[in-house]
Amino acid sequence: MSDHGPTLADALREQIVLGAFAPGERLSEAALADRLAVSRNTLREAFRVLAQLGLVQHVPHRGVSVASPTTADVIDIYRARRLIEGGVLRAASPVHPAVADMRAALERAESALAAPDWAVVGTANMAFHAALVALADSPRLSRAHDQVAAELRLAFLAIDDPESLHRPFVARNRDVLEALIAEGPERAADELERYLVESERSVLGAYSRMGRV
Predict the structure, then answer these.
(1) Nearest to residue 88, comparing CAs of 42, 48, 148, 35?
(2) Taking the model in full, what pTM does it have?
(3) Is residue 72 exposed (0-12), middle (13-18) or buried (19+ Cβ within 10 Å)?
(4) Would you tell me the crossing angle of helices 118-134 and 162-183 to the nearest 10 degrees?
(5) 165: exposed, middle or buried (C-beta count within 10 Å: 0-12, 13-18, 19+)?
(6) How far apart are CA 70 and CA 80, in angstroms?
């Protein structure tokens, strides 16, 4: 791996989002530097980048660990999603090229439901919403949404019931897509708002059952 902080940070970010490290798991600087064949200084720089993204946290005298979103974090994540995704969708065109990416991601999720492969469903769900934000043709909005989505994935990974998190919302994604194509952006945005309210309640309900704060 190249000895370059941002590149290493990107690789670690992907591993964290895909669940290679559990929320709250301590990241051994020595073990990771050895495994990734990078200097510890490079790894520390990558950790700083990931901390700015909200994906890791430094605890004094304990080192670096994967972030574990709190209830307050979840509420704020969904607030940001409503503003970003809802705002994008209300101004979207149903003939934008990103609509095809939304459809492709949705079809991957629907295919994975049969297995079921919840990791694939979750990744496809992220891709669907990333494609939705791409309707705005704004790299800055997409970057902001990517950060929010990565933090949300950590909240999902902390919940040991992926089916309840993903199965109901694959159909809701289809509702959003079909509303955009058949009825226009305002109707699709209304569907999305209902989706996000239900999804937030599902995550917060799971947190409550787990006794998380």
Answers:
(1) 148
(2) 0.87
(3) exposed
(4) 30
(5) buried
(6) 15
